[in-house]
Amino acid sequence: MSARHARRLVVALLLSIAWASAQADDTSWSFRAEYPDYVVSVPGHFLSYVPIATERGPGVLFSHEIQANGEPRLHPLPSFEVSPRRDLPLAAAVAISVDDLVFSETGNALSRASLQGWLVADGRVIGAIDHALTKTTVISNAGLRAGFFSLETDLFLIQRFRHLSITGLQLSFDPGNDASAIFSIDSTALTLSIHVAEVPEPASPLLLAAGLGVIGWRRRLLDRAA
């Protein structure tokens, strides 16, 4: 083997090792947070988000900057999977918030942002998420405006479930023109507020009542026989 071919082989091996290492860093992760009545997991990738657990519920921080310059774009978000900690179904009230999504715009541009997604309980779609983010302008000077988008949805009420998915979440950006932008910063976050209550299985008291009825019926038969 010539020296040139040997060098090419070494370079190819180094590139393959670097690629394999990058792939290893890009493996999926499963974030799990336990609350008194439920457990939540967030499958996804660490490359763009950092999972967080607040008192109100789970969420993700945007660890890498995302932005839309000039043209509209869609940005997919992680899904949230919620299950009861005990073998009882849950009822829940869920709200979704987005914080600190920054915009800058010029001229007559009218930047917009919205959040879409689905709520799926036990494999059945029970609600659609489609909310425009609220726009707050902080700076307005000589045709330049800057500020942030935020969102706090109304409560979604789910009466009974054993597994809840908040899935298909995506942010929709539209900066308005080529000189405008929408982008995330270190404090940009999407979080859930989840309030849950356990729902007793209706079968349990019914079975108990039926069992007591059978016992009473047998006692009456025995009394008559005696």
UniProtKB/TrEMBL annotation:
Record's signal peptide: 1-24
Sequence ranges assigned to domain Ice-binding protein C-terminal in this UniProt record: 199-220
Record key words, sorted: Signal
InterPro entries documented for this protein: Ice-binding_C
Domain of life where this protein originates: Bacteria
Sections of the chain in a coiled coil: none
Pfam families referenced in this protein's UniProt entry, alphabetically: PEP-CTERM
Protein name from the UniProt record: Ice-binding protein C-terminal domain-containing protein
Organism, scientific name: Methyloversatilis universalis (strain ATCC BAA-1314 / DSM 25237 / JCM 13912 / CCUG 52030 / FAM5)
